[in-house]
Every structure is written in structure tokens, then in C-alpha cells.
Amino acid sequence: MTVFRDPWGIPHIRASSLGDLAFEQGQVTARDRAWQLEIERLRGEGRTAELLGPAGVEWDVFARRTRLEAIAQTAWSRLDTHTRDFLAAYVDGVNTAFDEGATGVELEALGASPGAWQPWTPLAVFQVQHVLFGSFPSKLFHARARDVLGEDADLFRTEGLAGGSNAYAVGGGRTTSGAPLVAGDPHRVFEAPNVYLQVRLACTDSLHGFDVVGLTFPGVPGVQHFGHAGSVAWAVTNAVADYQDLHPLSPSESVTRETQTIVVRDAAPVQIDVLSTARGPVVLGDPSDGTALVLQTPAHDLGDLGFGALLPLLRSRTVADVDAALEHWVEPVNNVVIADSAGRVLHRVAGVVPVRSDAGDWAGWVSGLPRTEVAPDGAFVTANERGGAAYDVLGRDFAPPFRADRIRELLSAAPALDATSAAEVLADVQQTQLAGLLDLVPAELRPAWGGAMDGSPGAAWFAGLRERVVDAICAAPQLSPLREPSPHGPLFEPWSSLPGRVAASLHVLVEHGTPFGIDLAPVVRECAAELATEHARASWPERHRFHPLHALEQFGLPHERTSPSTPLAGDGDTVRAASWLPGTGVCVRGSVARYAWDLADRSHSRWVVPLGISGDPSDPHHADQHATWACGGTLPLVTDWAQLTEETPVSITHRDLDPVADLDLLHGWVTEPRAVYWGMLDKPREEVGEIYAWIQDQPHLAAYVLQIDGLPVGLFQTWDPGVDELGEFYDREPGDLGVHLFLADTAIRAGHTMEVTCYIRDTLFDRPEVARLVVEPDAANTASIDLFRRVGFVDGPQVDLPNKVAQFAFLQP
């Protein structure tokens, strides 16, 4: 088996058997996203508090009460043997990478190591991504709103935070090649690292071989929602189906009770009761006071998470193959667009939707979910909207039609498409949702504006107007109870936020005219008049910045942000979705990938994600796709194996520095601006040579050149604290050895910083006389300090030295 990387570090994995392929996918994912895999595993097991302390308790209570791990185990046990073997091989790859030292900076900072994965862990991770993706969190808000507002609560009926996406397929009659195209972009919460991971999986087995590129959830093998298998491609959007119910716990309902203990780091353990009924788990409330709510989902009813679709999807060759594979799909319920190189284009809804009796009881599953055959000169667009009367069987809450209508308008006006122009459709930032709001603004108060949510003054004005109108509506006394935090806790606050709900349904409120008894016409006029007296506002993109949520941030814990805070054009219901979060200057939800699959020639396809493939902020592929994504662009899909770089283990070595032979190299390094802390920026070549000749002559000093595959990448020096004057500035111990480290800014080292540093650590600890390593970087050199911490050094004192303030740190084997 072999792993290759393209210019963006995206792994292309090739193996002769399915098991080897899955194993390597697990290994590669663990190396690229170790922290993400660990936190998602703990979420799935309801054990985040073991790592994060009290901040993890709320999630762990929820995860255990919803029985995420138990459902994953049940679903795994019911899978066919081939799929179980596929999952087991992937998990073996993850565990092997962890055993070999794969980790993340977050884990190192917490003093933790990744834990062992179980064969069912990928199913639990998949549930973590989707348990709050369905309808029940919004049902909590609507029930509360109905208690406050009565029937007026229906004015909030909209997709809310259920999830979104754009996807479309066009027949060959609409393309330059004569073959279909599939394009789209999923919309989810921005995360760092990204929720989706690009990958290529090629199995050369002569009987069951395949070669699929696509996007996967880190921690889940295969390619699920978006893939191109060469002769067939598919993409999904959320169908916004109502497939989850909350039922009050009936007094006559049989309940199984299990007491579980949540271990909490640096705090006392927490004991909870996990209650289950035949309909599902009790997830909220208390049976003793009649507030208990039972969550019913297809996954619980069927003991199935749809993983039976994974292998058939990889092995698909035609639309019919993908269609058949999706018969295994359970939840979330998705719109799927599929096209193949033979010219067939199909839309279908995949998943399981319950049939409900008049009393709300489940009585089987809806048959005949919507599906559409698309003509060769036709197109099918899905953007979470109600796709006609056939969608009545799915539910009643769908996204507004604005994104879908705009895509159809752009496709109708476009000449024949190729993959590049197909992806460009997804970059559109025209705001069409709130024409009714603009109609309420007097002409003399409305600036000229074409409607694009970009850096124009008109977009800044519109954003300011909308913000004021939303604030005015939220301030209405009749809505006061809905301004209170969610009664179900912080976990459900995003679905309960009144400003968020008002903003999402503003087009409905404007159309109504007097929602909740508020006459909007004078409110809008007053807001526009106030806005006219303001000085120039910052541009919309500047006030609407990319803000991915790191897991630590999601748990309310301190986190030093490393992701770029990029200005973003677009808006919540523009095609280039970038949702507005009222009361903030950040954007936390939008397009988490963008792609265009060409069925004539896969190598002409395009894709991109925010940030990049690696979860390590020091990796060159951590954010190397981000600038392209942020401006609405895409990157070429590399499919030619000859253009890829084979990933092989590097050879790290060192040798004694030669002050004469290495002088040019050495002088170039220590006079780089990044070597400022070495204090030699202004030293001439000859003086640098004299300094290092003297160092190499001292019995208590030594200098070495670091090498990767025989090429120089840095320098490290050792010093004896028992002799060197530096030892006088801290409490020396027997067996101490001091270390200085300089790493060159060279492409050879890219991605191997930790390996090189760990090599030095291990090499020096191989010396029997060494009991502790000592470093003393400049206190201002935060990059070096962070690197040493990640290797395991523990901070000691800060000391004023003659030429710097030093941060001493120590490491024992």
C-alpha cells in the first residue's frame, strides 16, 4: 500500500486490498487530525470530561442519555461482515498511528495521549456529527415560542440551524463536454480543523477495485456525502426532513434505568441516571416532575446508522449503483444528486422518515420519497428548499427558496458549463432574500446598491439596517420571555437564540407586516433614519469575518486562535453562504467545502475547503487552501499519480558541524531575520566561523548539523550546565544537559518539525549520562517555547540574562 500527497497535502491512498486501504486511511487520518479524532471519540463515548474537566460534563450527560455509544455498538453488530472488517481495518490504522506517536498540540498541552479506538467508534463519531443535525433542537424552540406567542410562533418557521447546502446537477446538453456535471457546497458550522477531509481511495483489487475522490468525516472510513468514482459522481444537501420526535414520557411507559459515573478531570465524579424506553432514550427533563422527554429517531428504532451504504458507494460505477447503495441510508435524510458518464442524471431523497399516526405515534416508514429523473438538457437544483408537493411527506419546515432560485437563475443565464464555471456559480453573493425590507425604506434614505453582499458601501448600509431592525424586533416586550437563555442549557442555546431566529425569519416577518403586533413599516423607517446619521461604516466583509470554532472554544475553554480571521463576502441566504451572527462581527457557519465534479474527465474537476488538510497549525498544509476558498475559488483536482509525491518516512540524522566546510550554510542561517534570537544578524562571515571554531574546541560545548534525507535543515548545540555560565542562572541537577536549537526555513523541513525535535530529544537521552534536558529560549520567542512544550518540556523560571530574558524549561525521559 502506498500514500501519495498532492501539492495541498491531500492524501491519495492506493492499496491492493480493501483492508489495506482502510488501514492506511485510518493511519493517514490519525496523522493529519489526531486531536480531532480524539475529541470526537470522547464525544461519542460521553467521556470528554475526563480530558477537559467540568467543561465537558454537559456534553457527556447528553451523549450518554442519547445513548450514542450504545447505538453505535448495536449498529456495528448488525452490519454485514465485509463492512465490519472495513471498519476494523480503519480502526487498526488509527490505533497504529497513535501507538507510533501521532498526536496533536492540544493533547500535548493537556498532558494527554490519544486513547484506543473500538471497531464501532466510527459509528459513534458519525452520530456526533448528526445527532443535533435533525429537527428536535428546533422543536424545543418552537414549543417554547408557542407557549409565549401562541399561533404567532409559526412566524419563526424556517430551516433555522438544521443545516444547509447547495448542490446541483446538469445534463450533458448543458455542458461544454457533453457529459453531466455535479457541483455543490455543504453548509455547516465552521470548525478548526474542518469538519470534512479531502481524500482519494484507490483499491487495485481486480475483482472489487475502485478509485474514488471525495470528502469524508475524519474518523469515518470511505467517502460518504460527496464523491467522484470516475464514471459516477454524487453530492448531497440536507432534505430538512422531520425524522426526530420528542415525546413526553408517559406514566405507563416502561423505563429501563442505568446509573452511570462520569469521570471529571480535576473534579469529583458525576453520577447520572440513563433512562431508556421502547421508543427511545429519555434525553431531557425529569420523570419525577413530568418534564421528561423521550427522543425517537430512526437510528434507535432500527439499530442502524446507514453504514451498509459505505462499501457499495465506493464500488459504484453508475447512477443505478449509487441509487441502490443509498437504499441502506438511514439518517440524516438527504437530497442526493447523482450523474454518470453515460449521461444519466438523478435526484432522490435518501433516508428514513417515520409515518406518524394522528396521536403522533410512529407506524412504519414513508415509502415513495421524492425522486426526479433529469433530462439531458435539464438541471436539478437543491438548496434545502421545499421541492414541490412531493416534499409534504418529509415535513413542514424547509429553507427559504432564495438560494435555489438564484442558482437556477444563474444556470439559465449561463452558456455551456465546464467544472470551473460550474464552481463559479457557487461563489455568487447576490442578496435576494430581503427585497421586502428594502421596499419599506424611503427612497431618500436608501443608497444606490445592486444587492451584492460584498465590500460595497451599499452592502455595509444594508447590513447596518438589518442589524437595527432585528434588534428592534427582539426588544419588543411581548418577546421578552424568549430573550432568556435556553431552559435546556447552553448546549441548545444556538437553537434558542432570539436574535438568530428573528434574523433567519426576517423575510417572513417583513411579509407579514405586523408580526407579534409590531408594525414594521415605521420601525424600518426609523432605523434607516438613524443609520443615515452615522459616519461611514466598515465594509461588510471586514465586519463579517471567518471564525471557525475550535473544540476547546466550543466547550468554553481558553484557546489561542491560530486560524486566519478572513473577511468574508456573502450572507446567510446568498449562494456563497456565510451566515450572519447577530450582535457579533464574526461568521461561524457557511460553506465547509466547494466542489464541481466533471463526468467527462475527472481531472478537470475542482474542489476546495476552508483552512487545509492538516490539523497542526505548524504544518504548511494547515491553511494553504484557505485564501482560495475565502474568495470563492476552487483548486484543481489532481488525479494523475505521476504528479503526486509518494509519502515515505524521512531519514533524520545529525553530524558534527564543520566550522570551515559548513561556514556558508551556517552564516546564511544565523543572519536570517528569523534567527534574531541567536544575536548574530550583523555578524560577518569570518566572525561566525571564528565563533563556531571556538565552540567546537570547547570540551563542554558541541554543535551539530541536523539532516533530513542527508540534506541540512538546522543546527543544535549542547552545553554542560556544570561548566557553562548559563548553569549559574537556575537550580542545576546532576545529569543536566543544555540544548540550543535552530531550524532553518526550508521546504525540506516542512511538516517534519516535531519529528526533528523529537529526534534530538531521543538522541540526547540515549546518552547514559543525560538525566534531564535544559533549554532557555528568549521569552519573546513564543514559537520555540510552544515547540518545546509540545515535545514535553515543562516551563521553569524566567531569568534576566545579560543579553535576553530567558524562559528556562526542562524535560526528563
From TrEMBL:
SMART domains: AlcB (SM01006)
Domain Acyltransferase MbtK/IucB-like conserved span(s) in chain numbering: 655-702
Listed SUPFAM superfamilies: Acyl-CoA N-acyltransferases (Nat), N-terminal nucleophile aminohydrolases (Ntn hydrolases)
GO biological process: antibiotic biosynthetic process; siderophore biosynthetic process
Keywords assigned by UniProt, alphabetized: Hydrolase, Transferase, Zymogen
Any one GO molecular-function label of the UniProt entry: acyltransferase activity
InterPro entries listed in its UniProt record: Acyl_CoA_acyltransferase (IPR016181), Acyltransferase_MbtK/IucB-like (IPR019432), Ntn_hydrolases_N (IPR029055), Penicillin_amidase_A-knob (IPR043147), Penicillin_amidase_dom1 (IPR023343), Penicillin_amidase_N_B-knob (IPR043146), S45 (IPR002692)
UniProt pathway: Siderophore biosynthesis; mycobactin biosynthesis
Superkingdom of origin: Bacteria
Role, per record: Acyltransferase required for the direct transfer of medium- to long-chain fatty acyl moieties from a carrier protein (MbtL) on to the epsilon-amino group of lysine residue in the mycobactin core.
Family: Belongs to the peptidase S45 family.
Protein name as it appears in the record: Lysine N-acyltransferase MbtK
Species: Nocardioides cavernaquae
Phylogenetic classification of the source organism: Bacteria, Bacillati, Actinomycetota, Actinomycetes, Propionibacteriales
